[in-house]
Task: structure prediction
Amino acid sequence: LADPIPSHHTTASYPIYMSLGSQATIYPETQFSKTDPLDYEATGPIYATGNCLYHFLSGCGLCLLGNFSVATALADYVSAATGWDFSMSEALKAGKRIQSLRQAFNMREGLHPDDFRMPNRLSVPSSAGQFAGKQIDFTALKKVFYREMGWDMDSGWPLQVTLEELGLKDLIRKS
Result:
């Protein structure tokens, strides 16, 4: 819904896993309680954190599947391999940087947040399962996700404060 590569199944893996209350890493920054999928205020931060975690993992060249088997110590692995004093907060920031760069690229190339939408079959209430008769408000979920990522909901561009925080000042748009 908000990833620069639509319908990429692995990008949503950590957010879904984490929203079920599963422990993705050993660090408190990635620990969340099981959340009602229709509580967008609660799931938005989880989806943003999980997305950043996924992009950090992928950016390290690590396999998602190997990291689902146990709650991993990703930041400790980077520290051991590099000799850096590296934290999970830095890992999540690196993942956010990757995702925000991907988002800025798509916006620069003319895409708009409205271009990212779910197929029509998902825009009607489900007829079976735990969501029978319920409809997911993807616009509301995207709005909370964008807020958590520090992106403008109308334009899709990462906000100036987000770009500054991520060390991406060169991407700040001059109006």
User: Anything to note?
Assistant: The helical segments are 13-19, 40-59, 74-82, 88-108, 138-149, 160-165.
